[in-house]
Each structure stands twice: as structure tokens, then as C-alpha cells.
Amino acid sequence: MRQVTWPGRTVVTGQTRRRWAAVLVVVAVFGAVPVVLAHRPAPAAGLAPAALRDRITASAGRAYHGYAQSAGALGLPPLSHLEELTALVSGTTEMRVWHAAADRWRVDVLGPGTERGLYQLPGEQYRWDYAESQLTRIVGEQPLRLPQAADLTPPELVRRLLRLGAGDRLEPLPSRRVAGMVAAGLRLVPAAPGTTVAHVDVWADPASGLPLQAELTARGARRPVFVTRFLELTLAAPDPAVLRPPGRTPGTGFTTTSAADVLAALDRWDSLTPPDRLAGYPRRDAVDGVSAAGSYGAGLARFVAVGVPGRLGDEVYGTAARWGRRLTVPGADAVLITAGPLSLLLVRAGPTYLVTGLVDASLMQRVAADLAGAVA
Mind telling me which residue stretches traverse the membrane in this protein (predicted)? Predict the structure, then answer.
């Protein structure tokens, strides 16, 4: 296997303060475009699906570094303040990944004429925009944050999907060569009613359990709508120097923000708390202590509702109304956008609510009616 070494610079886009609502959409970011895979026949890995799942779950601390690619074909329109989400699920993202431990890693995103880097260190995170020479330090855990490319690497995405579908049926898949390795396969078939996901196919290194590739297929689709995979991979610890963010030098911008500040700001919007029940499902806090965001449903039919304040809510709704299908809901304006398996609902009934998940239109219609009734 060829081992690749990259230079030490990195990148990550700057964080727009007003896009906090997009944070919760990340739980639904699983979609993307089919990738044509050229691979040699692979010998059988000889590992039962349940055993492979257990090894995947236990692989979070595995060290590795490599080059990954995610590709999405959801066709999500360019919604106001959700541009980064659109790019993640409706295009191709090239990533360099260095992972030493769960709290020490780096992901660079490569684009035309740009490079953006994300560094995770114990208790803090750094975002580096090479083109803008801007370094941002984020202190503390981030239960609320914008969607980011690091969520779509094969290990991160697969482990998230397996957690959501913990009780779903597993089926064996033939082995496949991924990044030069023989990978064992399994298929996750969701059991929850209302989900738009037909199945999720996963391939992982049978020895370490590290996920190497994932494909998500929507119900009614003949091919995957999202693929993430490693193109090159080395199962060894990266050079510690690569994990250090760039130093502060003359001409480099530097800012510091605290995750606690974001949570404190959201606490002031308790009037936007979603209802206790939506479409028959009880509400759980999407983030402990933050009432403005609620999680509903189960498994891959889970969806999130978030109150969007003031002018931001009006802007997001206005953009969605230009692209989506209007729903008939007494006492409210509602618009639904479907992009592959992803559904995104905006309801304006005094306050504005954004609801998103891998759920079907009939469930979203019930959600819209419940939101309108809750504020009537």
C-alpha cells in the first residue's frame, strides 16, 4: 500500500454567526451522488454483519491518515444561510484526513484555489482558512455547530448511522476492495416507518473495524444518492506535527469564540421551543439544556425541529418558498423541499420553524399541521 505524506498547512471556512440553525441539519446529512467504482474482485472477508458492526463501533480510537472523497446528488437548492449544507450534500468534497485519537485529528478540505482546515485538540478546535489567512479558535465542546466536511468521512458517518439504526436489520454484503484493502461489507435496513432510506451499505477493514466506504440509497432509487469513501489510506498514526494548527504570525487574523456563548444565546430564545409532540412522536432536547431545538422519531426516521428567530426565519422561509412545494396547512404558511432522501420543512405560524430529517412527505405534512396548531 502506498503511504502519502502531505504538507502541514490546513484549512477550514470561517463560521457565520447567523447560521446556527443549520447546525441541527447535520443529523440529516447523509445523502450524495453515485460514484463509479472500479475494483478488482475481492476475497471474502468471512465476518458476520453483527460482528463487523461491533468492530466498527469499537474503532473510534483507531489511528489512520488518508485521502477521502464524499459525493452527493441531493440537488438541495441554495437556501439562505444554509449554503455550506448545500455544498456538502449536493456536490463532491475532497478531504485529507489525519486521525490520531478521538480528540486529536485534522481534516483539510480541498477546493479550486482554496484549502480549509479543521484541527481538533483536547478541549478546543481550530479552523484555518488558508486563502484568507484567518485562524479561529473554538473553546469547549460544541453540541451545536455548523455541518462540516469532517462529519462525512467514512468513519464518522458510518458510526453515526449505525448509532441511529442500532435496532435495524443487518445483512451481509460481498467483500470489496477500497483504497487497496479488502473490506468486509454489511447492509443496514431501517425498520422505522416514515424514513426515506431504503438501506445503507458499509464496507470496513475486518481487522480494525475502521469504516472505509458507505453508500446511502433512498427508497425508490436504483443507485446510491450519497457515497463517501477512502481513495488512499494508511493504518498508522499521523506525524504529530501535522496535527498542530498554524502559529499566529504577522498578517494572520485570529479570533476566539466559546461554545458556551452560543448555548447562552439560544437559551434566550425559549419562546421558540418546539411542541412536546409532533406527528405523534414525543419531543427530546436535541441538545441538553437548549429548548429551541427538539428531536423526534426513532432510528433513521428521526427528525429535528428548531425555532428560527426573527429576520433569519423570514429569510430562510423566503428562500425555501422559491424552491419548495407549498403545503396546505390551516393557520400557517408551510413549504416542503425534498432532495433525495432529505426532507426540509419550513413552517411560519408567528414563529418560524425549520424541520429536517430523512423522513417522507406524509410525515412532514403531519408535522406542519401540528406546528400550526401549537401556535394557533
Answer: 20-39
